[in-house]
């Protein structure tokens, strides 16, 4: 299992420096006992990398891996096979999907930056509604700088189909979506991990 993501991380790190370190920060702000039973949702789970961190670090955690892309879900199923008794997979559009339960933890990795600002606020409000009391939302994503010159010099805004915002804007959106505690826990250039609590 570890080897699956070691190879994947090496490939990803060719375009996203410190990707492995970034993913390992997903569980940093989560204050749970190691064997506490927690329900998690991974929005835009992709290949399952963030889910892997949750499942590896919390042996009694269960994760619902959610993605709009069936092919990504199939990759996640393969990559997380060793955790098949603690994973579920669902395909669909996040905003229109009816989730049947609340979650202690919701994570999103490289999903929010693909949304327009008004869509992000809709997503954050839905995430807030899906969290149990004192639940955590952790986001790892591409962000921009407040400096236009720096964004231009690093080609941050034009690269790919992402629409990154300054991390301070992301924290402001979390406040608008009624999250209480909000903070940045890791940053390297145009990549960051931040979290919030309900």
Summarize the structure.
The chain is of the alpha/beta class. The protein has seven helices and seven strands.
Please give the alpha-carbon distance between the first and last residues.
32 Å
| Alpha carbon gyration radius | 16 Å
Biggest sheet layout: 7 strands, mixed
Tally of helical segments: 7
What CATH architecture do you see?
3-Layer(aba) Sandwich
Biggest sheet, spatial arrangement of strands: 3-2-1-4-5-7-6
Which structural class fits the helix and strand makeup?
Answer: alpha/beta
- Regarding quaternary structure, how should these chains be classified? single chain
The count of DSSP E runs of length 2 or more, i.e. the number of strands, is: 7
Estimated helix fraction: 25-40%
- The number of domains: 1
Elements, N to C (H/E):
HHEHEHEEHEHHEE
Taken as a percent bin, the fraction of beta residues is 15-25%
Shape category: globular
The CATH superfamily is identified as: Vaccinia Virus protein VP39
- CATH C-level label: Alpha Beta
Unreliable stretches covering 5 or more consecutive residues: none
Written overview of the protein:
The protein is α/β, with parallel strands linked by helices and 198 residues long. The chain has one domain (2-197): Vaccinia Virus protein VP39 (Rossmann fold), CATH 3.40.50. The protein contains 7 helices and 7 strands; from the N terminus they run ααβαβαββαβααββ. It has helices spanning 2-12, 19-24, 49-57, 70-79, 117-130, 148-153, 167-176, and strands at 39-43, 62-67, 87-91, 103-109, 131-142, 182-188, 191-197. A 7-stranded mixed beta sheet has the order 3-2-1-4-5-7-6, sandwiched between helices. β1 (39-43), α3 and β2 (62-67) form a beta-alpha-beta unit. The termini are far apart. The mean pLDDT is 89.
């Amino acid at each position: 299992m570890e080897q699956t993501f070691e190879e994947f991380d090496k490939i990803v790190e060719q375009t996203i420096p410190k990707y492995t370190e970034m993913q390992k920060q997903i569980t940093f702000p989560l204050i749970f006992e190691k064997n506490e039973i927690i329900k998690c949702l991974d929005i835009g789970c992709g290949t399952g990398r963030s889910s892997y961190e949750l499942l590896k670090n919390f042996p009694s955690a269960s994760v619902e891996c959610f993605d709009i892309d069936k092919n990504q879900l199939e990759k996640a199923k393969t990559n997380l096979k060793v955790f098949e008794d603690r994973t579920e997979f669902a395909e669909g559009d996040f905003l229109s999907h009816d989730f049947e339960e609340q979650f202690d933890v919701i994570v999103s990795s490289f999903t929010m930056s693909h949304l327009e600002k008004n869509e992000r606020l809709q997503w954050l409000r839905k995430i807030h509604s899906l969290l149990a009391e004192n639940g955590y939302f952790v986001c790892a994503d591409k962000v921009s700088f407040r400096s236009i010159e720096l964004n231009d010099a690093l080609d941050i805004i034009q690269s790919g189909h992402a629409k990154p915002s300054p991390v301070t804007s992301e924290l402001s959106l979390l406040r608008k979506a009624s999250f209480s505690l909000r903070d940045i826990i890791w940053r390297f250039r145009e990549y960051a991990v931040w979290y919030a609590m309900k």
